[in-house]
Amino acid sequence: MRQPLVAGNWKMYKTVAEARILIAELLPILSTIQEVDIVLCPPYTSILSIAALLEGTNIHTGAQNMHWEPSGAYTGEIAAPMLAEFCKYVILGHSERRGYFGETDANVNRKIKAAFEYGLLPILCVGETLAENEAGITEQVVVRQVKAGLEGVDPQSISSIVVAYEPVWAIGTGRAATAEGANTVIGGIIRGTLAEMYSEELAQMVRILYGGSVKANNAGEFFQYADIDGALVGGASLKATEFISIVKAAAG
Ligand code: PGA
What we know:
Shape: globular
Number of strands: 8
Largest sheet: 8 strands, parallel, barrel
Number of domains: 1
CATH topology: TIM Barrel
Bound molecules: 2-phosphoglycolic acid
Order of helices and strands: EHEHEHEHHEHHHEHHEHEH
CATH class: Alpha Beta
CATH superfamily: Aldolase class I
CATH architecture: Alpha-Beta Barrel
């Protein structure tokens, strides 16, 4: 049985002071929910204080990106060993990184390997753009992103990776994929690709999330599908009541 996982991707929102307020609202309720792995991914500047506030709770800290080298002259970048002091998870290959910052499949692959090397669990994001969806090449794109992102990743690591299927057209648009459509990509295409690359047994161990306009009022529909193991939540993770409802829906 895969433990459901709900991750909040705060993107470039919240100062440390604002982050503390949100944590104070979330903690009393979320800390009582043991059935779900809960991950909060704040901006780098809040990671240290949030990790301290969450210490000893069931809620984990994550980062939104990192560099693949362990150190070096890379102005403005953050490395895996730096994150590993405070974080358990790291989001890699988010479509905003791919789209706005030129992140390639090859660099995502380097980052995935570096994350494992330093004990971080990657949340690998994949998903097609609107144009790719309309051109009917969703499967091709998602298979390429999964294969290239995980190329050379050893089977011992793979069961602890998290994959997030996030159709780009559904992110921040209020236009979520249908739960049935997401389940087809997640259960069929992504889990199928993992089975082909590794084994059916390993593919069944990997948690695969849906992301893209998940809200309190639609989360339950996604979690009804056996192959959808949770959600990567952007906008709705910035509001305590919304995020708590989503986590509760995942707890079943
Ligand atoms: P959204 O973002 O929930 O605001 O659509 C999801 C994401 O980008 O991970």
